[in-house]
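Hi R.,

As promised, here are both runs. First protein below:
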Amino acid sequence: MDDPRARVARAVSGMVAGGYAVDFDLGNGSVPCDQCDRSLGNGDEVTAALSCYEGHTWELYGLYCAAHGVETIGASMGAGSDEQAVVAATLEPTGYHDPRGDHHPEAVSLGGVDVLDYAPMAYD
């Protein structure tokens, strides 16, 4: 049987550090910490709160400076019905091709992912 933590690490490694719930600046490769608003970029160690939307795609719900110690689902977003995880990662300058086909060469993504907390999908 597949280790869910290893599966999550594989799924989110290389994921662009931004999305609907996390603002990011594709032009200069930065994303703000959700707790202190510090600009984070290439080489910064972070923790990220994620949820797997309806079992299909992982979405960022929060990105934090590693120094804040946000290491649990409860400390970052609270329990929900979707599969959830909190990971430690280093921001890497990998670039990003958005759904419209535009390329953003300065965008950063999650690298060196280590799953700190994991919760499976909750069923009714």
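And here is the second one, sequence first, then its structure tokens:
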Amino acid sequence: MKFFSKVSLTVSDLIIPILVYPRSLKHFIFDTQKGGPILASSDDGICSLVFDLINNGITDILLFGLPCKRDEGGTAAADKSGAVQVATRKIKRDFGSTVNVITDVCVCQYNFSGHCGISDNSNGNVDNFKSLALLEKIATSHADSGADCVAPSSMMDGQVDSIRQALDSYGFGAVKIMSYSAKHASSLYGPFRSVAFARNNSQDLAFDKSAYQLPYSNRREAIREIEHDISEGANMVMIKPTLWYLDLVYEVKKMIDVPLVVQVVSGEYLMLWKGERVRGDNLGIFNELFETLISVKRAGSDRVITYITMDFLKHLAKSLS
């Protein structure tokens, strides 16, 4: 009985990630296997999707973007005509404060290397200083387009402080920062990368980002990164991935006073769907996803970013009503 439930879950606890792309990619064939992100055109598909999400109780979305063209420095990420910027303006125009728009601040989908900062392709080293300057431009372009919150995911040293100062200096002091504070160098990002990097020249999607993402074997380092981001001004902090990191979620929640967000990443989501394919049991996958979300909330997370189908969202909304 809900009356005796110790852990509550509502649809509004969820943040839905959406990968937006420009009109020029409308006819590109994306691999939309289970576990990948929801896709929408920034020109003519995003608002109808957001309308459906709102009608099913969703109040927060997280936008990732794809560019028309990549370049070595990932400069299109800061373009005011970029997919994220265009989509944000349209969403805020049509829905205003009904939905909170969070935007991913990174360059990996926009450059040739697939790295989360500006890198020297000859050796793969990432220039932290140059990367911070670009992250500032990206964040302010998102804020100027109407984003309620920016989410730096590059894992560059000092990214929260750098972005906070840039936002404040351009008059965007009200825009919040949700930092990917403990983003681990995980093998679970594959389904997202298969879509986001489908047009990348490289056929190798197993990018080695261990130079700046966290080792999954070191809990203390993750805690230090979270504490550091909070000291730099992060309004929310994130742990990613989730299901194999619930010990960290539990420990961190007891230590911090800001909201803790987790992301059930594409590989975690795909594992559940693979099980459903073997069994052929649609109701089973709904129950497993629900149990997964409850376990994440029980460990201490305040909000959950999760890949989800509209069918499951409707099922969840109905079961919680």
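A quick note on the second one: The beta strands are 14-21, 38-41, 60-65, 100-105, 149-152, 176-183, 236-240, 260-264, 303-306. Let me know what you think.

Best,
J.
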